[in-house]
Amino acid sequence: MGEKKRSTWATRGTFILAAIGSAVGLGNAWRFPGLAAKHGGGTFLVVYLAAMFVLGIPLLMMEVSIARKLHKGAGESMRGVCKKMEFTGWAATANAFVIVTYYSAVFAWVLMMIFGAIKFAGMTGDSEAASNVFANLTQTTWDVTGYTIPIPVLISLVVAWLLMYYCIRDGAHSVGKVVKYTVFLPVILLLIMAVKGCTMPGAGAGLAQFFIPHLDALSDPSLWIDAIGQVFYSLSICMAIMFAYGSYLQEDSNVAVDCTIIAVGDAAVSVLSGIVMFSTMGGVGMLENISDSGIATAFIIYPQAIVNLTSVGWFNALFGMIFYLMLVTLAIDSAFSIVEGVSTSLADKFHMDHKKTTRWVCCVAAVISLLYTTRAGLAWLDIVDNWTNQVNLILIGVLECIAVGWCFDTNKVIKEINRNTTGYRMPAGWFHISIKYISPILLVILFCWNMYSLFVLKGGVYGYAVWAEFLAGWLVSILVFTSGIWIRLIVKKKEKNGFVESEVVWEETK
Can you give the pTM of this predicted structure? Predict the structure, then answer.
């Protein structure tokens, strides 16, 4: 029996919007401005943009072009590149699954805060009360204790998962219908917030801090580490997502141009978010309060700024609702794209119906995500997020570079990238050097820095009980990197019942 015809993006623009929607997420809105504040604003911006072109764009093009060539998700795409490195694709898929279990909880929190922002109307000038709204709604213990689930959080999680499933229920077809709204809406909301921020007294000081570089900051190694990390996390690479999205591309798509547009769009939203954050915080005299912790910025610090915007309570509340609605529109694209990456990998590997696979992935992930809705959920999320990003994601990036750069042939990949382009092309030398040398070396340095920070600076403990960090940290990492073994065992068992793996072969384009 032949395989079911694969769905494709309706238009080139739909793919670009979907990929930008996936890349642009909560990290753009809160992590990027926080890191910029940490490293002297303009200095971080310069290094971030340099890292985007040196590391981010080549990796993005690599994943999208391989998936378009093979028309497969992450697991099968990596098998088509090198059978021995197939486990890398499954590590990316498994890590993405772990990420979506807690990202959905964050999505639920920002949904909940749209309505929680109503409370800001009665808190004009009361920064302390505003900073406690989120903690009161979630009833967080700030530790791995307390497992009751507050009803507002539970309802928000259910709504979040229903929205996510609705967006991806029919793969590329339904995603294409949604992204026309969810990509442009946050930009419009950010522009509204930027206009308000830039017209406030004191906004100029904030914008100056954001855009003017301080060259003495370049000597700080953590600046380079954070900038490289932000590019890596922001573009949705090494998370199975771009393999899934690339696999839906038509043969005449222009990978070189489209991926550059995606990366530039992602960077542009980050800069716009920085303008909003720095102008607003400067306008209320709280520039020194910007934090590199996304959770703290969105749910504790920014509410303090919101209640100090004006002396009109209802306006502050409205502005708060706009802020959290903006976060919702950023979060939803990223959230459902992660599910799409996971379900595409599984459906391609085991010849399953994509819609049913998506439904099962959503159901299983939703059950696991209940952990993060408990009063201990914030602490568990903090642990899991640290390991999935600071350990797993970086190592997956290194393995992908090794698989393509050293176990395969980068000449074949660059040929695929530039297949349909004429004027603008990815320079072959740039791509080879980036994938074979610069990207893996920088990612190894980033990983070593994170391990140094964990074991030397923090004494081997991230900040919670050792048993909790082992379960949610190291054990999760072990499961992620052994996922390929479990997939292989399942295949062997299914083969006894007549299952036959698809042939995934890279055939040269004539």
Answer: 0.94
